[in-house]
Amino acid sequence: MSNKSQKPDTNHSRRKVIKTLGAAAGIGAVSNFSPILFPRAYAASEPIKIGAQFHRTGIGASYGRWYERTAMAALKIINDEGGINGRPVEIIVEDDGTDPKRGAEVVEKFATQHKVDVAYGTLFSHVVIGSSPRAGELKLPYIVVSEGHHVASGKLNRYVFQPGITDVKSQVISMAPWISDNLGKKVTMIYPDFAFGHDHRDYFSAAIAAQGGEVLEKIAIPPTETSFTKYFPRIPRDTEVLYHVMVGPGVLTFVKEMGQHFGSKRPEIFGFIDSLEAVDLSTPQLEFLEGTHFWEGNPRYAQTNQSAHDKLFRAAVGVDDNGASLNDPKDISTYAHMFGCWETLFIIKQAMEACGYSGAADRPAFVEAMEALRNFDEGRNHPQGSKVFNPQIHQSFGHQYISKVEGGRLNVKHKTSIEDGMYEAEGDYTKMPL
Amino acid sequence: MDFGPYLFLATLEGLVQAAVLCLTALGLSLVFGVMRVVNVAHGEFYMLGAVLAWWITGWFAGNPAIGFFAAIIIGPLLVGLIAYLCERFILRRVEYDPEATIVATIGILYILQQTTLLTFGPDARPVDTPFYFRVEFPWFGYSGYKLLVIGAAVLLLLLAWFVITRTRLGLIMRATQFDRETAQNFGISVDKVYATVFAVGAGFAAVAAVLIVPIQQAHYLMGGDPLLLSFIVVIIGGLGSIRGTLVAALLIGLSDGIISVFFSPTLAKMVSTMLVALVLVFRPQGLFGVRSRI
Amino acid sequence: MQPGYKSLLLHALVVIGLFLLQFVLPEYHHLSVARIMLLAVFAMGFNLLFGYTGLLSLGHAMFFAAGMYGAGLSVYHFDWSVPLSFIFGVGCGAMLSFVVGLIALRTTGVAFMIVTLMFSQVAYLIIVYFTTYTRGDEGLVMPQAARSFILLGREFLLTDAATRYNLSLILLTITMVVVLLLVRGKFGRSLIAVRENEPRTRMLGYNTFAIKLRALTVSGTLSAGSGAAYALMFAYIGSSFATIQYSIDPLLYSLLGGAGTVLGPVLGTFLMFYLIDIASEYTTAYLLVAGVVLVMLVLFFPKGLLGTVRERWLRWLP
C-alpha cells in the first residue's frame, strides 16, 4: 500500500503546522500581502518537494491508485541516481477526491502549507480546470497527466503543463487515417454526453471528414446511464465502423449489451481503451470484443518487440506482461495512462536540472526551462515512445497505438507517427507574463 | 429497427429497471413508512448487496448458478444484519429524531462507502449471470436473465404483499406505522418492530442489488442513484403504500427509457424529472398516499 | 423584539475575531478560511429555511449554482465587470428561488424535499445540456479581466489573498446581519410559528404561504450570493457544484453546528472542512473518519453543537 511518501509525511506536516503557527504575526502579515513565497536558500540536503495531486477516492480512484504507484516507482529511480541537483526528492500526496473544489483547495495546500516546489499528477479534466486558476495565481508550476485538451487549448495559464502525455484531440485525429483506410468510412459514434465525449465527437467528426469519411449517427449517452440496450437500435444498418469511448463503471455492461445486440453479425468496432482501463480483458462479458480494435496510449500487453525500457518500466511499477499487478493477476493497471506519471517526473527533473533549480524563487526559471524543452527520446525515462513538446501550448505530441483483441489480449497493429496527431496551436502561453 | 419493436425493447429495459427500483424502494418505504426516518444510507445497503454478491460468488468456482443462489440468500441476510446493528446502536440511541437521524445516516453512508473502498477497492467488478440463454423475439434477441429479474421482482413483491397484508407480522408493522403509541398500548414491542423493519428494508435493497449485479457491475459508488430514485418512488407512490410503490416504480422506471426514445437522453431525463416534481406538487401525498399525517 | 444586546455583542465579536484572525493565520489557513467563510454564507442561507422555517430542501445546490453561473457566464461570455456580474448572479438566485418557491411551496415535509431535489436535478441537467456555453462538467475558467475590478475609485485584485479574505468576511457579515435581524424580528417569530405548527399559524390569520415564500427567496438569494462570490473569487465554474453533494453539504454543516442558530452553520462549515483536511493527511479513508465523527457527534450532540449549547447553557443564543 503506498499512501506514504518517501519520507513519513505525517510527522513532517505536523511539525510544520506547529512551526508555522509559532511564527505568528510577522510572517503571517507579510505573506498575506505577497502571494509569492519568500525565496530561501536551501541546504544541500533539504529535499525537493513535489506535490502529487492524485485521485485516491471518488470516481477516478481506479486511476489514482496506479498513478501513485507509478510515481513512486519513478521517484525511487530518481533518488537512487542522486535526486535532482544533488538533493533528494520527496513526493507529498494529497487526495482531491476527483472533485474540482477539493482540487483547488489541495493546490493551495501544496503551495502554502506543504510548500512544495511543483505540483503534479492530476488526471480528470474538470479537476485540472478547477485547480489551475489557483495554481497560476500562486505561481505554482502545475504539471498534469490528464489527456484533456484543456492545457493545449491555451485557455489555462502559463504555470500549467502537460508534457508527459498526449491530449485527446491529438489522439482522436491520429486515429482517423488508419480507421478510414482499414476499417471503413461510415462511422457511428457512441460517446458519453459530457465534455470528454463531446471532444471525441467534435474532433473525430472533423478528422474523418478530412479523410473522406462521414459520421452517420452520433449517440450521446447520459453520464449516469447504467443500461445501454436501448441505445444500440439507433445504430444505422449501413454503419461500417462503430466508434465507442464509454467510460465509467458501466463499461462492462456496455460491451456485454453491445454483444447481445449485434450477435454474430457486427460492423467493425473501434474503441478507446479508456473504456477498459483497469478491466481484465479475459472477463467473460467481454468475449464480444474479440477481433475489435482499440486505441491504446501504451500497449497493455508486452508485445513481441517489447523494448528494454518497457520491461524495466513494468518491473519497477510492479506489473506483469499482461499489465496486471504482480501481486494479483486480477488487478489490472491503467496502463494506457499511468506512464504519463513516470515520464512527467523525469521531465520535471530534466527542467529543474536545466535551470539549476534551487528553491521556490527559481519557479519562473523552471517554467522557462520547461518551455525550452523540445524532444523526448524513447528511453528509460520515456518508455511509451518519443515525444515532441510544443512550448507555446505546453503540450507534448507523441505516438499512439492501435491494437486488435486477439485471443483475449491486445496486439499492436499500428503505431502512428507523431505528425499524425499534430494540429495548429490555439494559443501561446509563452506570451503571458510570469 | 422499426419504431414498434424499438418501443418494445425500451419497455422491456424499463421493466427491468422498474423491477429493481421497486424492490429497493419497497425497502425504503417500509423504513420510511413505519419508522418515519430518512435513511440516507439506504443506497449503501444496496451497494453492499452487490459487493457481497461478488464476494460470495467468488467462493464457488463451478456453476455460476450455485454461487448466485448462495449470494442471493446470504447477501441480503448479511446486509440485514449490518442494518440491524446500525439501528440498534445508533438510530435507537438518537430516538429516531428526524434531524439527528439524517446526520447519523450520512455518517453511516460515509463509513460503509469508505470501508468498501478500502476493502473491495475502487474498480468496478463483474459478476456472472447464473445462466445464459437468449430469448428470441421476432425482432431482436433479449437476455433471458433480464426477464428472470422481472419475474423475481414480481415474486418478491407478492411475497412482501402477502406478509404485510395477511400475516400477523405484517399486521404488527402496519399497526406501528399507523399509530405508534396505540400500538405500544396493545403490547407491541415497538423497538423490536423497528429493528426488524430496518433490517428487512435493507435486505430488500440488497436483494435488488444482487439481482441487478450480473447485468451491471459492483462498484463502491453505485449506491447514489438508487438512493435518489427510490426516494422519489416512495414519495410519489405515497408513504406506506405497496401498490403506490409499485406503480411509481413502473412509472419512473419506464418513463426514462421510453421518453429517451423520443428525445435526446439528457433532455429525456430532464422531462421525466420535471414530471415527477409536478406530480408531487399537485398531489403531495403521492399517487396512493393518504393525505393527512405529514 | 430586536436582537438582544448579548447576541449582538456575540456576533460582533465573531466578526471582529475573524477580521483579526487574518493577521495571525499562516498562509494556508488564511486561504482556507476565505473559502470556509463563503461556504458558511451558503450554509447560513440554507439554515434560514431549514432551521428556522422547518423546511428541508434537498435542492439548494441549484441556488448556489444559479449565483455561480449567473456571475460566471456573464463575466465569461459578456465581459461584464465583477460587481455587476455578482449582482446579476445574486439576482438570478433571487428569481429562481422565487419561482421555485411559487411551485414547490405548495408541498411541505417530505414532498417538499423531493420536489426541491427534482428541481435541482433539472438545473444540473440544464447546465450539462448547454455544454456548448457552460462546458458542462469540465467547466470554465474565469478570464484575466475578471480577476480585478474597480469600485468607488479603488482597484481590488481578486488574486490577492487579503482582498479575498476581507470580501468573504464582508459577505459573511452581511449575511449574518440579515439573518440575525430576520430571525430576531417579527418575521423570525412567524417563521418559527410556521415551523412549529403551520395550521395553527394559518388559523391565527397569517398568510403562511407568503411567509414561507419570503423565507425561501431570502434563503435562495443568500445561497446564490455565496455561489456568485465563489465563482468570481476562485475563478472557476463547473457543473459539479450543482450536484446533490452541494445540497447535502449545507444541510450537514447546519445540523452539525446547530440548525436553528445563526452561528451554527458557520461553526459546522469550519468543522467539516478541517475534519476532512486534517484526516486526509493521515489516511485515505478520511471520509470514514468523517463518518465516525458525525455519528459520535449526533449521539452526544443531537441538536448540533451550538444547539446543544443553547439548550444546556446559553438560552439567549439566537
The H/E string of chain C reads HHHHHHEEEHHHHEHHHH
Q: Count of DSSP E strands of chain A? A: 17
What is the molecular shape of chain A?
Answer: globular
- Structurally, the number of domains of chain C stands at 1
Poorly predicted parts of chain A: 1-41
How many helices of chain A? The count is 10
The oligomeric state of the chains shown is heterotrimer
**Distance between termini of chain C?**
12 Å
Bin the helical content of chain C: over 70%
Please bin the fraction of helical residues of chain A.
25-40%
* CATH topology-level fold name of the largest domain in chain A: Rossmann fold
Identify the strand order in the major beta sheet of chain A: 7-6-8-9-10-16-17
Distance between the termini of chain A: 39 Å
CATH H-level superfamily of the largest domain in chain A: Response regulator
Given helix and strand content, the structural type of chain A is alpha/beta
Number of helices of chain C: 14
- The largest sheet of chain C has its strands arranged as 1-4
Form type of chain C: globular
State which percent range the strand residues of chain C make up: under 5%
Overall mean confidence score, pLDDT of chain C: 91
Could you tell me the mean pLDDT of chain A?
Answer: 87
